[in-house]
Amino acid sequence: MSSLVRPTDDRMIGGVCAGLARRFGTSAKTMRVVFLASCLLPGPQFLLYLALWILLPSEDKARTAW
Q1: Does the N terminus or the C terminus of the chain have fewer Cβ atoms within 10 A?
Q2: SS3 for the chain, per residue?
Q3: What pLDDT sits at residue 62?
Q4: Tens digit of each residue's pLDDT (9 = 90 or more) over 26-49
Q5: Alpha carbon distances (Å) from 26 to 34, 44, 54, 57, 59
Q6: Is 61 exposed, middle or buried, given 0-12, 13-18 or 19+ CB atoms closer than 10 A?
């Protein structure tokens, strides 16, 4: 498994779904569909997405840190 970062090449909005998909070995499209389906359920999914967008480093910034 790769590290959890927001990729620069497969972003739609913030790159959170693409980063999670890369980390767990699935496609970004599948992760986006799962996220959109989960938004139909009650809960803080949108707030979690915003928090991950803020907390996860971008791939280019993570490369320069190492």
Answers
A1: C
A2: CCCCCECCCCCCCCCHHHHHHHHHCCCHHHHHHHHHHHCCCCCCHHHHHHHHHHHCCEHHHHHHHC
A3: 63
A4: 999 999 999 999 999 999 998 999
A5: 11, 23, 22, 20, 18
A6: exposed
